[in-house]
Specification:
Blueprint: H1 9-21, E1 32-37, E2 40-46, H2 56-59, E3 63-72, E4 75-84, H3 90-96, H4 100-103, E5 107-112, H5 116-123, E6 129-134, H6 140-149, E7 153-156
Parallel strand pairs: 5-6, 6-7
Antiparallel strand pairs: 1-2, 1-5, 3-4
Helix pairs in contact: 5-6
Length: 172
């Protein structure tokens, strides 16, 4: 008798987050998030324009340019960054469409490490753990420090391969 392979819970829920990300119409990055309490899936969300508003694939990206200070090898430089401001992040949508009572003591699985704003919102939402796949280096250190100070478990899912049908090429 052969025993069938069974995915662990982290893989199972991250697979769902990756699948949810395929609903995004953002040409720059597809992000999916799921809310889990115990082993129960309570909500899903992805990044995109507000409901009823043309999204980036219809109206183009609404890009804002900002300059940020970067220190590399002890040398400080100013680097121009672009970000789309038309899109509501997956984590923000997840918080908008789930109840506080469901978030208390829950875990969020998200395809991309939360930015500073999303991490702040999640830290105030009642969740106790964030599991992410791809790092977002821009805010990594301050996000880790803040979530650690709140006692929120924050970890990258190692050695995970997303389902092939969810893979897209993203721009930085």
């Amino acid at each position: 008798m052969t025993v069938a392979y069974r995915k662990n819970w982290d893989t199972y829920f991250m697979d769902i987050a990756c699948m949810v990300s395929t609903r995004s119409r953002c040409p720059r990055r597809h992000v999916g998030a799921v809310l889990v309490q115990g082993k129960k899936l309570l909500g899903t969300a992805y990044n995109g324009a507000p409901m009823g508003v043309p999204d980036c694939s219809e109206a183009g990206c609404m890009v804002s340019e900002q300059y940020e200070r970067e220190i590399v090898g002890g040398v400080e430089t100013m680097v121009k960054k672009q970000r789309c401001i038309r899109t509501i992040h997956a984590e923000q949508n997840l918080l908008l469409f789930t109840d506080r009572s469901d978030r208390e003591g829950s875990t969020v699985y998200v395809t991309d490490e939360p930015c500073w704003t999303c991490a702040n919102m999640l830290a105030n939402s009642g969740i106790v753990e964030i599991v992410y796949l791809r790092p977002y280096r821009k805010d990594m250190e301050k996000v880790e420090a803040m979530l650690g100070s709140k006692g929120i478990v924050f970890r990258q899912l190692e050695n995970y391969e997303p389902p092939k049908e969810t893979m897209i090429t993203v721009s930085e």
